[in-house]
Design brief:
Number of domains of chain A: 2
CATH topology of the largest domain in chain A: BirA Bifunctional Protein, domain 2
Strand order of the largest sheet of chain B: 31-34-35-41-40-39-38
Number of strands of chain B: 45
CATH topology of the largest domain in chain B: BirA Bifunctional Protein, domain 2
CATH class of the largest domain in chain B: Alpha Beta
Largest sheet of chain B: 7 strands, mixed
Strand content of chain A: 15-25%
Order of helices and strands of chain A: HHHHHEEHEHEEHEEEHEHHH
CATH architecture of the largest domain in chain B: 2-Layer Sandwich
Distance between the termini of chain B: 91 Å
Radius of gyration of chain A: 44 Å
Oligomer: heterodimer
Structural class of chain A: alpha+beta
Strand content of chain B: 25-35%
CATH superfamily of the largest domain in chain B: Bira Bifunctional Protein, Domain 2
Number of helices of chain B: 19
Shape of chain A: rod-shaped
Largest interface: A-B, 101 and 108 residues
CATH architecture of the largest domain in chain A: 2-Layer Sandwich
Radius of gyration of chain B: 41 Å
């Protein structure tokens, strides 16, 4: 082995290696070439074994040439390898692309019933003023549903509540949530702030605006100084919370045997904004609830001294509030359970 | 109550538009529900004058007329009436007119002659009830003017509340107008020209039941002729919604609308011995009432009788035999006060509620008995040309003085949140006719009266006394005065404040668990439904569980008998449901009929029953599934099955912090598929879940192959809060998983295997999960392989293989011992 032939071998190796690197078409081939050419048992190592047969003064020259060859090969491997890897990623990305305009995979939505949700929202508004939810029975006795609310038997006001009676003596299906007032007063001492949501029943043929089963929310507040002004202040805030802070409200006389003075509470027509339209019977107003100062007799039946204490009560139909908020025109929709209706709600 | 404004103006001046008046009345508590234009539908009906009347050449019963309506050519109109003559002014419906009831008038040919419109009867215009002849108008009715302008009116429909019987009258509403505007009320002048004999010679009245009839005033009018009332009167009654009948009956009705006082007129010829007796009916008596229904009377019914028998049901309806007819010459007027409760009960018993009984029910001031008798006698005398007998028969002429109601203006202010002086309150009350004065020492303020009086002695100078007008029977306690003061001043002036009284103590809402369940299930894709509590008897029978899901907490248990409505609207809604499953099946059925496939619904609702005479109510969660989770464009649909229902129940249990659910087969509930139903139990949860029995699916027309339903009792559903979560830090050492396949007999429930795994896995076993079920070679027939993945976890170290091997060995031993299982290797 002499210097010239070794030099020639290295040149051949370089030329051949650069050709093979240039011909590689996959990143894996580059990896393989790197091993074949430069690895521990690679071709360059093989060639350099001949270096041992050279005189000592010639060895550095060969070493310099060998380094140069190694660097050339390494450079070519890196350059070609980089080219190939970039191309492969590109092809993969391209191969993996999808039509992003297809719809998402559906997750079943589910929904909560608008009446139950409306009652929950009402409870939330009054909850901010310290009102707490109570519940009372739906199968109620005549005493609590009527007599303790200052509606004795044969009172003409009984006509206001068409009643369904049941096969239990002196019992009926509560016609309103108001008997809950009596039950709360029996359970609590003033100060009382109670909210009573629940199902009620009337002997009333069902149509778009009448229902034999419906939901009411009753409110009761009793203390020494609770007045009509407190009632008005709260109802205004309630109306603004439910229908918008820009809505005008109206406080006018009403009639209930269990309140004195009695109140009807109106909000400006949500359809015409008070300009009078068929939806508000051309009055510009929509009545949303009845209320008043708890009648002294009712306080007495509740075991509360009507001279020391006084308070207000109100009652509203959850359907009425839901109708106005959600633009529902037919009460029957709430209990028909047509999923095409219910699924519109969150 | 229908209030024609032109009639109301007889009693009070009104300087407001109908809309303004309606608003003022509404704000006073007399809610105006609608403002109707009476006669608004007669736009093309005008006043015409008959220029000629001649027989129709081809029809005996028709006349040819020419009519002028002022300008233009005279119109040729064919007419069938016989009461017309040249020179009369009559209503002419021009071609294009639409009459009440939607009848269209056009140019029409009648037996060869073209008629250019129609001459109208009072009945055709609903102005009077006379259908036989053309309505003859006043001779000075201006030609060409529309009838609507001349006779039309604005009618307010006022919702008079049950406590204000006094305002069920034009006088009463005139008082309210007066309170609003300050205009004085004008009473009608009642001139009774008494020319006949002393009434005592013509009428004798005996009241046997003085409690039920505190006052009876009778008058007699003789020698009258019954016929139609004056047209103007008929028009007023029509506008007020009262059908004109005859001058005598109309007089009675006119006084009722005007004064709110119902009266009754008897044909005197039908009254034996000129004698009226007010008594209870006797058992077995019968009476044919004015509506020609023969009614059985009983001792609870107050009647007006004569010595020969019953004549009328007092205050409710007259009898046919003594009805005023064309032939009547003499009438007896009854103007009485009856016990409101008795009248109300009688009306209900016979299902007879009349305008009269509605007014009696609300109570009447006694002086109206006298005024009513005088008014009706005067009107009959005038309209029917009768001779009024001198004097009245009056069983109780004393008329009570106005009552006194002491009140404290300061309490009025405390109730209403205002700060009105004594003087302000007095002047407000004065506007509704309530005079006031300083209270006399010792006068007690009625805070409450019936049934338990609460009388308070005021400090000197604190109280005033309201002198109550006799017609205001609704005012009795101090709070009533607060309402009067407030409504006259205007509820609008009540200030609004945010309550600043002491807050009540904290109390948890009973809705927390229900709300959490609803959020969980709706989040899991279920839709909440709310169904009728009242269902059909068939429904209750069909869906009652043999073993109802027991109650948790201290809720009443669901035993007992269903509660039935004794006066249901329909049998479809006549029994309170005892559970939720039937309601949910009906929801599935109705939605499937709409063509809906996927149905996943739930309801949080009550079941009801009675134990003896005690009603019970309890809360349950119901779930129903039918159809499939729908396919997406690249995935198939998944039909719902039992495990979907179980999965969502387990989700609820986990979200509510309840324990692990376990299942046991339920073979014995007739509404369920016996092979696909389980009882569930977990700490705080009990229930049943399964497929509806195919026989019920068919019977209830549920167009779904399978319906999976569940009913659950949950801790806290009636009134509770989810317990706060006790958290643990995440484990610091990795869990080790080990798969175990267990070969057991085919009929061995997997739940048994799971139970043994849990029980024998030791403290370190954190979780087990079924991941495979295999049947077939190399297993023997009658065997199955159940594969679970077991997760082991320790707080303080990583396991060694040896440790786990030991656990697996003891698990394997337990499986062999308890369920005859062996590990598959």
């Amino acid at each position: 082995m002499d210097l010239d032939s070794l030099r020639a071998d290295l040149e051949n190796l370089r030329r051949g290696a650069l050709e093979r690197i240039a011909a590689a078409s996959e990143p894996a081939q580059i990896d393989q070439l790197s091993v074949d050419l430069l690895g521990k048992k690679g071709e360059l190592t093989l060639v350099l074994r001949g270096i041992g047969g050279l005189p000592a003064e010639q060895r550095p020259k060969v070493g310099a040439i060998a380094n140069e060859v190694r660097q050339a090969i390494e450079g070519a491997l890196a350059e070609r390898g980089g080219e190939l890897r970039t191309g492969a990623l590109g092809r993969r990305l391209q191969a993996e692309s999808v039509d992003v305009t297809t719809p998402g995979r559906p997750i079943p939505r589910g929904s909560r019933h608008p009446i139950i949700e409306t009652m929950a929202e009402i409870a939330e508004v009054f909850g901010q003023f310290g009102f707490v939810v109570y519940e009372s029975p739906e199968v109620e006795d005549d005493l609590t549903n009527f007599q303790m609310l200052n509606i004795p038997p044969d009172h003409p006001a009984r006509d206001l509540w068409d009643t369904m009676y049941v096969d239990i003596p002196e019992h009926l299906l509560r016609t309103h949530t108001s008997p809950g007032q009596i039950r709360v007063m029996h359970a609590e001492r003033p100060p009382i702030r109670a909210l009573l949501p629940g199902r009620c029943f009337r002997y009333e043929a069902t149509d778009a605006s009448h229902a034999s089963e419906f939901f009411q929310v009753e409110g009761l507040m009793v203390d020494e100084g609770t007045s009509l002004a407190d009632l008005r202040g709260l109802l205004d805030q309630f109306a603004h919370a439910m229908f918008g802070a820009d809505k005008r409200t109206r406080f006018r006389p009403g009639y209930y045997p269990f309140t004195e003075p009695s109140v009807a509470f109106d909000v400006e027509c949500l359809i015409c904004g008070g300009r009078r339209c068929p939806a508000c019977s051309h009055t510009g107003w929509m009545t949303i609830l009845g209320a008043g100062m708890v009648h002294p007799v009712v306080l007495q039946y509740g075991g509360i001294d009507p001279e020391r204490y006084q308070g207000f009560a109100f009652g509203m139909g959850a359907e009425r509030i839901a109708n106005l908020r959600h633009g529902v025109g037919d009460l029957r929709l709430y209990l028909e359970n047509d999923l095409r209706f219910l699924e519109q709600f969150p | 109550m229908k209030v024609p404004l032109s009639w109301l103006r007889d009693y009070v001046d009104i300087d407001l538009t109908p809309e303004q008046l309606a608003e003022r009345l509404t704000l006073l508590g007399m809610e105006v529900q609608s403002i109707d234009r009476w006669g608004g539908d007669w736009q093309d009906v005008v006043v015409g004058e008959l220029l000629s009347v001649s027989p129709h050449p081809r029809a005996d019963r028709l006349s040819l007329t020419t009519v002028t309506i002022g300008d233009g050519e005279p119109l040729e109109i064919v007419c069938g009436a016989t009461n017309i003559a040249v020179g009369q002014r009559v209503p002419v419906a021009l071609p294009g007119a639409v009459l009440p009831g939607g009848r269209r008038i056009g140019r029409a040919e009648k037996m060869g002659v073209v008629s250019n419109g129609m001459l109208c009867s009072g009945e055709e215009l609903r102005l009077t009830s006379d259908a036989d002849g053309i309505l003859i108008l006043a001779g000075d009715a201006p030609l060409g003017r529309s009838i609507s302008e001349l006779y039309g009116d604005v009618v307010l429909d006022v919702d008079v509340k049950p406590n204000r019987g006094d305002a069920l009258s034009l006088i009463g509403l005139a008082r309210e107008v007066s309170a609003a505007t300050g205009a004085p009320v004008r009473w009608p002048s009642i001139d009774v020209h008494e020319e006949g004999p002393e009434v005592g010679t013509l009428l004798d009245v005996e009241v046997v039941e003085k409690e039920l009839c505190p006052r009876f005033v009778g008058r007699v009018v003789n020698g009258l002729s019954v016929g139609p009332s004056p047209d103007g009167i008929q028009m007023r009654l029509q506008a007020a919604g009262v059908r004109p009948v005859s001058n005598v009956v109309d007089a009675s009705n006119y006084a009722m609308v005007e004064l709110g006082k119902p009266t009754h007129t008897f044909d005197a010829a039908a009254v034996h011995d000129h004698r009226l007796i007010v008594r209870r009916a006797r058992a077995g008596e019968r009476l044919e009432t004015l509506d020609h229904v023969e009614r059985d009377l009983d001792a609870d019914t107050l009647v007006i009788a004569d010595p020969a028998g019953d004549l009328a049901i007092a205050g409710v309806m007259g009898g046919a035999a003594s009805e005023v007819s064309d032939k009547t010459r003499d009438v007896i007027i009854e103007s009485a006060i009856f016990d409101p409760v008795s009248i109300r009960r009688t009306g209900q018993r016979y299902a007879l509620r009349s305008e009269a009984s509605l007014r009696f029910e609300k109570g009447q001031e006694t002086r109206l008995a006298r005024i009513g008798a005088d008014r009706v006698a005067a009107l009959i005398g005038e309209w029917a040309d009768g001779t009024i007998a001198r004097g009245r028969v009056d069983t109780n002429p004393s008329e009570p003085e106005p009552a006194r109601l002491p009140f404290r203006p300061a309490r009025v202010n405390r109730l209403t949140g205002t700060d009105l002086s004594h003087e302000e309150q007095r002047s407000l009350l004065d506007r509704v006719g309530i005079a006031t004065e300083e209270a006399v020492a010792g006068e007690m303020v009625p805070v409450a009266l019936d049934p338990q009086a609460a009388l308070v002695e005021p400090v000197p100078g604190e109280a005033l006394v309201a002198i109550l007008p006799t017609w205001r029977r609704d005012l009795a306690i101090e709070a009533d005065i607060a309402e009067e003061v407030t409504r006259v001043r205007g509820y609008e002036l009540v200030p609004g404040v945010t309550p600043h009284e002491e807050m009540p103590h904290f109390r948890p809402t009973p809705l927390d668990v229900r709300d959490a369940v609803r959020q969980t299930l709706s989040g899991a894709g279920f839709t909440e439904v709310v169904s009728y509590a009242l269902v059909s008897p068939r429904h209750v029978d069909a869906f009652r569980l043999r073993n109802p899901v027991p109650s948790l907490d201290d809720e009443p248990s669901p035993g007992g008998e269903p509660i039935t409505v004794t006066n249901p609207l329909s049998s479809q809604h006549s029994v309170l449901r005892t559970g939720l499953i039937g309601s949910l099946v009906e929801v599935v059925a109705s939605n499937r009929r709409h063509g809906r496939d996927e149905i996943a619904v739930f309801e949080v609702g009550k079941g009801y029953a009675k134990e003896g005479d005690r009603p019970r109510e309890w809360w349950r969660l119901g779930i129903a599934l039918a159809g499939s989770r729908p396919a997406s464009w690249d995935r198939p649909a998944f039909p719902f099955d039992l495990d979907d229902a179980k999965g969502v129940i387990e989700l609820v249990a986990r979200r509510m912090g309840l324990g692990e659910a376990s299942y046991s087969p339920e073979l014995d509930e007739p509404i369920f598929h016996p092979g696909r139903t389980a009882r569930i139990s977990a700490p705080g949860l009990l229930g049943i879940v399964g497929e509806l029995h195919p026989a019920l699916t068919e019977a209830w027309d549920v167009r779904a192959e399978r319906v999976i339903v569940a009913e659950l009792a949950l801790r806290g559903l009636s009134a509770g809060r989810p317990a706060p979560v006790r958290s643990v830090p995440p484990p610091r050492y990795p869990a080790v998983e080990r798969d175990l396949a267990v070969i057991v007999a085919e009929d061995r429930p997997i739940g048994d295997v799971a139970r043994v795994l849990r029980a024998s896995g030791g403290d370190l076993l954190r979780d087990i999960r079924l991941f495979d079920l295999y049947r077939g070679a190399p297993l023997a027939s009658g065997e199955k392989s159940v594969a679970f993945r077991l997760a082991f976890q320790a707080e303080d170290r990583t396991f060694t293989e040896t440790e786990i091997d030991e656990v697996v060995k003891s698990v394997a031993d337990a499986l062999g011992r308890e369920v005859g299982g062996r590990l598959r290797t």
